[in-house]
Design brief:
Blueprint: H1 5-15, H2 37-49
């Protein structure tokens, strides 16, 4: 995240509602169920592995 996304999410968490409309880009339905740390890390690795290629250097 970047460009103010962190602040947007933090304000949403603290106030219980988004500070301004940003749907459907950020939507609570994207976070359907709580997950433990190991599942969170597994999902992060899955997402980033599709976005970045390892360097052959």
């Amino acid at each position: 995240m970047g460009g103010g996304s962190g602040q947007f999410i933090a304000n949403w968490i603290l106030s219980g509602k988004p500070p301004y409309p940003l749907l459907p880009t950020i939507h609570p339905a994207r976070c359907k169920e709580p997950m433990d740390k190991s599942e969170c890390l597994r999902r992060i690795k899955t997402v980033y592995s599709g976005s970045y290629a390892e360097s052959s250097n």
